[in-house]
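User: Hey, quick favor. My workstation is busy. Could you predict this chain's structure for me?
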Amino acid sequence: MIKNITNVRGFKCWGAHSGIKSMRRDLAIIYSEVPAAAAATLTQNKVQAEPIKITQRNLANNQAQVIVCNAGNANACTGEQGRLGAEAMVRVTAEMLGISEEDVIVASTGLIGEKFPTEEVVEGIRVNIPKLSTEAKAGSFVANAILTTDTFAKEGFVEFEHEGITIHMGGVAKGSGMIHPNMATMLAFVITDFDIDKNLLQSTLRYCVDRTFNMITVDGDTSTNDMVAILANGMAGNTKVTSESDPGFIVFREKLLEILTHLAKLIVSDGEGASKFIEYKVSKARSEENARKLVRAISDSTLVKTAMFGRDPNWGRIIAACGNAGIAFNYKKVNLMIGDKTHMVTVLEKGNPTDFDKNYMKKILRESHIRIHLEVNTGHEEAVGWGSDLTTDYVLFNSVYTT
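Assistant: No problem, here it is.
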């Protein structure tokens, strides 16, 4: 049996239709039976949706007990009416569950600038909180209730042993377009029964997000609503982990990285109009930070994205993008390889172009999974990122998004 967020101890959830979207689930609730350590990374877009502001305030103490999210309306650029709507979501959720308003994480996703349907959402919360469940279908309902332009639900689950206890971790995510996380319209919610200090949880989430969700791009646009949130309720009963030197911390961080990487890749693979999933790797760099900057520079390049869509082996665009990464870069030292899942072709070796078979390269670029690997040859650090191509379908879809 496939496991999901309902297999995490002490959590109940539900996803339902509240009336925002036509005939589709649009309201998700994830509830911990006890107060949980909580952490989040939020969009750095200067235009922030109303739920982002509330969640940032409520997480000042790194504790929460419930995540409530609506889809179909971003509640961004909605003024006073939107602020009151987001606050109403928090208030009714807290009332129905008998918890503090400060323990509510609230999120929204959908169209920007549309009047927020407060009455429908609030009534949906009232009707559906009594339905919170540990049944497997409830986890799937949640995964589907947060979708917008996504073509499939995105779920993940991992478990590991610690102190003779099986620790569970599950997550859901949404995202297809407006994907260019710059965190401090993608959402990801992760829950675990691991017991970990709430301040350590925040720094650990930041570490993992920097290496996963902050390493993906579809179109280069950072949403007003980006949020990755995690709740750790400690109900596994392990000895609380309070420092990075404690037993169990490293495996916890590895598993959090694993589930976030999985969810991040699912988002990229569902990129609006995308025909290719592209993995970018930079190795032998002076520092991990430099490697990440190079990955982001390449994956963000519109010219690289369009070349991949057109199956054009124009590797010069990749090297040109590296020169715009904002760090020292000497192309005369680098090796550049392009390929698919099974074959890699060296197109640049220590700064010298190779005599590769362009027809063979075009054949490789027909594949749906492409790899680009740059060896900087200035150190020993590396980074990996993921992105999609930029297609005519993307342009057509987003040219009529609201009509």
